[in-house]
Automatic annotation (TrEMBL):
Polar residues bias spans: 18-30
SUPFAM superfamilies registered for this protein in UniProt: RuvA domain 2-like
GO BP, sorted A to Z: protein secretion by the type II secretion system
A family per Pfam: HHH_3
Coiled coil ranges: none
Stretch list, region Disordered: 1-34
Lineage: Bacteria, Pseudomonadati, Pseudomonadota, Gammaproteobacteria, Enterobacterales
Keywords: DNA-binding
One Gene Ontology MF term: DNA binding
UniProt keyword annotation of DNA-binding present: yes
The protein's name in its UniProt record: ComEA family DNA-binding protein
Length: 96
């Protein structure tokens, strides 16, 4: 037979459980502001990065297809039309 829990004790247990879960580090993989330059498509690159349109986004994807994955964030400078100003504006948004 199941043990009967008094309502006030049940409420206290739920409150305590919520407090513990709210203080725990998140393990979910929610949306990120970071753009993985080795995985992002043209649309994501164009939408999330500053100073880049469809043409430069396409150039990044084509470069990646031709030469393989970028080994460092700075390697994006090898893409035609991508310069130091682009990297400076977006360095905090880029990831591998």
């Amino acid at each position: 037979m199941a043990k009967k829990i008094e309502p006030e004790k049940a409420t206290a247990a739920v409150i305590q459980e919520k407090q513990v879960s709210n203080n725990s580090p998140s393990t979910s993989h929610g949306p990120s502001d970071k753009v993985n330059i080795n995985l992002a498509g043209e649309e994501e690159l164009a939408e999330k990065l500053t100073g880049i349109g469809r043409q430069k986004a396409k150039a990044i994807v084509e470069y990646r297809q031709k030469y393989g994955a970028f080994n460092s964030i700075e390697n994006i400078l090898e893409v035609q039309g991508i310069g130091p100003a682009f990297l400076e504006k977006n360095k905090d948004k880029l990831t591998l």
